[in-house]
Design a protein that fits this description.
The chain is built from 3 helices and 4 strands. It has helices spanning 29-35, 57-66, 80-93; strands spanning 2-7, 15-18, 39-45, 69-72. The chain has a 4-stranded antiparallel sheet. Strand 1 (2-7) and strand 2 (15-18) form a beta hairpin. The longest helix has 14 residues, at 80-93. The protein is elongated. The model has no long low-confidence stretch (mean pLDDT 92).
Length: 97
Amino acid sequence: MLCAIYKSPRKDQTYIFVKTRDDFSAVPEDLMKKFGTPELVTLINLDNKDKLAMADLEKVKNNLVEKGFFLQLPPPPENLLKAHKAAMDAKKEQGEL
C-alpha cells in the first residue's frame, strides 16, 4: 500500500498520510484549514514496513482504507514534575530520603 506523508507548517510534529499524492479530498475541510498548506515529506510503501517511528502501522493502514487519510499528532509533552515526584516517592519508600 503506497501513501504520501505530509507535514504541517503550522503544527510541529503533525503529519497527514494520504493514499494518493496531493489528493486531500478525504480530509475534512476544517482539518485542512488547521493543518495549513501540506508540505510533502515522503512517499512510502507501507507493505514493506514492519513498523513506523511514531504511529501504529496497522492503524495507519486501516485509517487509509476506511477514511482515506491518517492524522499523526505529536506525542503528549512529558510531565517532568510528575516523573520527579514519582521518583522521590520511590526513594522515600526505599528509605533513601
